[in-house]
Design brief:
11% of the residues lie in helices and 21% in strands. It is of the alpha/beta class. It has a domain at 376-469: Leucine-rich repeat, LRR (right-handed beta-alpha superhelix), CATH 3.80.10.10.
Amino acid sequence: MKFNLLFKTISLFMLNTSYLFTRAESINECNEIKENWGNYVSQCINDSGKASEITIKGGITQDLINKLATLSELDTLSFVYVPINDELNFRPLRNLTKLHSVSFDNEKRREYDPFRVRNKLLKYFPNLTRLEFYHVIIGKSALDEIGSLTNLKSVEFYKTTFDEDATFHSFKLLSNLKYLVIESYNRTLKRVSTSLNYLTNLETLEIKANGADVAFISHSTLENLQKLRTIDITNDVGLNLKRIGCLTNLVYLRLVCENTTSLPNNIGNLKKLKELSLYGNPIKTIPDTIGDLESLEDLYLADNQIESIPESIGNLAKLKYLNLARNKITSIPSSIGNLSNLQRLSLDGNQIEIIPDSLENLEKLDHLSLENNKIKVIPDSIGNLKKLDHLLLSSNEIESIPESIGNLESLQYISLSYNKVQSVPDSIGNLNNLQYVYLDHNNITSIPESLKNLSSIRVLNTSYNPIKSE
């Protein structure tokens, strides 16, 4: 009796399982799509039998568009190298209430061959929160359509050709926008207007637009962007940073702008700033207020025309990386020894003559680069940098290496090429972690046995020295 009951229960379970499996098979939308439109659909991802993500590649037909319109759970739709002609009707897609992400990707590996973003297309995606473009051509009308998609949180343009009339004026309506990337191709974008300053929820702004007038950055309405955390701009026209101090929640400020001439005093207002990067400009001075950036961890001001480092730099207690390479700096302030968290210091390509003893206080320093300067003496205090693993002093005027070099127990790489070094101390043999040694182009007459016997050495370059044969 019990056996019969158990048998019936198992049979019923198997029947229900079989039914559910058959039902799932029957509603697997991806199977149907691939079967009928496999030439166009390169990827289809199911979620419980419902298509949630679809990638269309190479082309599209009206019947495929009509089918897409029936996919009630579709969340992400990608067009990869799909030319969209005026005959195609995308109106049915407007009812896809769960469609949140659309991308148009026309990138080819070997050539730039963009497709135009058709007018009266984007308006049929009213519920989008993310929109991406790769290698497209776009004009004012299509941009205005984007401005009507008020649910958008992220818009990204990569290597985009903008028509002469292109403007972001309508973007001021995108009150939910948090992330905006604008990368202009071949100087086609003429102006980034102040309309961006009305995006009060914007958190990240990246602009790569050589030749464009980046007007918004110097306008009084910039202060509206109080949620902005990241600014990343590449532009060769030049930026006027006079109002940058009003963005008090800024965390990352990265600028590659050839004609920016100065850092304003109000830069010191950016108390939350962790990274300041400004390469390749005619900037000559660093304001004293730089020392007020109490959260700063990375400071990159290489390839400018900076002549001096202010003493206030020593106030940057959280600083980890300092790069002032290829400027016109003649001295290092003693206050640099106060940077107790500094790990990497790069001052190559300047006119520095003296390494201050205060550097010995940088207990966390692991990389010191002072190549291409006018340094004559390595101070004995260098030996106190116990965590230093890279020491680069090539192309200076150094005549001797102090015995204290043997105290650099973490040192792995040392470069003293193109100096006037006459001898190498025996203490260098204490460096059991040393792997790469460059002593070429000096006046060295002999190499100590202690260095030759180091088993850790991988490269020992002593070429172009008057070394006497034994």
